[in-house]
Amino acid sequence: MQFIRDYLRNPAAAIGLLLLAAVLALAATAGLLFPDDPLGLAGRPLQWPFANAAFWLGTDHSGRDIAAQIFHGARVSLVIGFVATLIAILIGIVVGALSGYYGGVVDDVLMRITEAFQILPNFLLLLVLVAVFGSELNTIIVAIGVVSWPPAARLTRAEFLSLRNREFVQAGRTLGLGDLRLIFGEILPNALPPVVVYASVIMAVAILLESALAFLNLSDPNVPSWGNLIGGGRSVLRDQWYVSAIPGVAILLTVLAVSLVGQGLNDALNPRLRNR
Amino acid sequence: MSTVLSIQDLSVALPPGADRSHALRHLNLDLRANEILCVVGESGSGKSMSAGAILGLLPERVRAESGRIEFDGRNLLELAPAELRAIRGARIGMIFQEPMTALNPLRTIGDQIGEMFRAHTRLSRREIEQRVLALLADVHIPDPPAAARAYPHQLSGGQRQRAMIAMALALEPGVLIADEPTTALDVTTQAQILKLIRELQERRGTAVLFITHDFGVVAEIADRVAVMQHGVLVEHGAAAQILHAPRHPYTRALIAAVPPLTPPPERAVSAAAALRVEGVSKTYRSGGLFTGRRVVHAVRETTLELPQGGTLGIVGESGSGKSTLARCIVRLLEPDGGAIRLGDIDLAGLRGRALREHSRHIQMVFQDPYGSLNPRKRVGDLVAQGPIVHGVPRREALRRARELFELVGLDPEATGRFPHEFSGGQRQRIGLARALALQPRVLVADEPVSALDVSVQAQVLALLADLRTRLGLSLLFITHDLRVAAQICDRIAVMKNGQVVEHGPAAQVFADPQHPYTRDLLAAVPGRHWNPPGEALAERSVVRDAA
What we know:
Helix content of chain A: over 70%
Strand content of chain A: under 5%
Oligomer: heterodimer
CATH topology of chain A: MetI-like fold
Distance between the termini of chain B: 46 Å
Order of helices and strands of chain A: HHHHHHHHHHH
Number of helices of chain A: 11
Strand content of chain B: 15-25%
CATH superfamily of chain A: MetI-like
Mean pLDDT of chain B: 86
Low-confidence stretches of chain B: 535-547
Shape of chain B: globular
CATH topology of the largest domain in chain B: Rossmann fold
Shape of chain A: elongated
Structural class of chain A: mainly alpha
Number of helices of chain B: 21
């Protein structure tokens, strides 16, 4: 309760939560409001928003309902955001925990691997992965997760380095706890808050990465993602700019929501900032 | 004697949501020229807040609500920040507890002392330089020119505190505020610093407001004493009166809780050894390919024997290797050589699963009551954790945890709470319950009471002594505090530079120390000539009888 009160005292965080709830509402009601295939032809192409009561956000260059694509696209973006983040955080935590806990050779090897991922710009690496493994949605989600984990690993490692010699960990060791219990039972719960906060950054970036892929026509063309819609609108950008702008605003608001929520979590979890 | 600083009816309000509404309530205190006034109290008594209020250095959201602080005909509480700055340092000097954090690590000592002159005077560079060297000589730092060029980390703790004192006294302030200036120091260094403060105070006629929690220090240095409890001044008067004939019950209780330096009569201790440490060594190596290698022999070839059902105290100053030895014994550290024999098993030779199985017979109680409990687990689970790992069913382990809570004097209903809901003394009891959950034969306690207030300290010591007899435990007790060691230990081993220099029955070591280092240690104990008054001693013996 205290935590929720701390969180909501920050107006930016409250707005973020509201926006995120709105995106979730879009995703939840997509099937009810637009039961038809959002990628199916619906009417005359390139109708402006509010020109036709049937298509209140207009239609795109091939006559598909933009509103339907925005609603269904919310699902795709959220799935990409959540699943890719989950993959990245899981890899990051395991690598960072092992590296920070054991140190020495294990640390050296794992950190060199992490650096190998970090020296490549992650969008470039993503392009390579998509080029090799194809551009099906599941592949893309995994690929985004695989390019996003190194910062999470470094963060977890830093937390472990400062926690592993604390007295409560030593106490666990004298009780006869094994390494796995010490890592996951004792240290990890204490190391988690900053990593959870960082997850919001990964999630925002994951949504943007997918949009960027779609803009280059490298995303899965068979799902109604916001990125695909922007990519499709590229050819009519000068006259019918709304085709790209509407999903663009949707992405902007979603990423903003996730970032604000992350920032709010950070402030609420950090007791030193509480009274500022 | 004239009053130089007068606190009149001062109340300091805490922010809403704190554990009480006021840090200080209607405080009246006069500091006179040429005297040392000790403000004594336990944590949370408001003793540091009173110092902060004088210098306008109260924490954020804490403010002085009413009252006056009269200094030099002016009320310090009403001064503008700029006026207050002119007084701070120049007219009222301050010494802090931890010299390492109070000094800027990136600037030399000479530079930082010189800062005082640059900020408050118009002396030339050369004059400042000479003043700094004279000051460093005044505080008896060996080789002042070298110390002036040194950075804080290049000096020892005692030398850093001397430099801090030089800085505080640079402009010959009429008032010096010292907030626990010796608490972070070793006992021999503490004795030197106390002597230095007394010497400088007498030579310059300074009025010193000395804040401390330690009645030994009070006995050593105070002219007058003010005792505080929960933000209220409960008693004040001449040092001799407070120390020998305290009137207020709280003062009496505090003095009664100070352990006397003489050990109680010897107990009969079995000749059999519960634990034998044979030739254990531990060496730390640091540095790498390109930097100079540093080798520290933390523990060298140490041999000790812990009698069955007895308490062996390991005493020594910081860096003596006592904590390293304790950590080698419970195998948190890997000893380089030697044997640790528990019964007929050599723990030093065991690895992995076998080690985990056998090391349950030696458990440890840690120093820091805040850091040694995982903040994210319920305390019942913390206590049940050990048995669960060793195969006891969860339900059974939790039931046992409730019994252990009762054993260490906590409410068994409290097992569902989190560590932050307990006080320091209660947390130390939880740590004890956790260690006892595995039914160990040997308990290693690493400074288990040094983070606690003196009254709580007495309770925890009594509990340890009680459990020792009831459960037939053998206790290895690590401490830097000779008073504490005198109370609980049957045998004492004195460590210095990784070696045991003296080893014998407690009564003998205290009455007739053989090694010069032991004599130095004993001579440095603050207030060693002060015997708490008879009435207080009577209360103390109640604690000891419980032991």
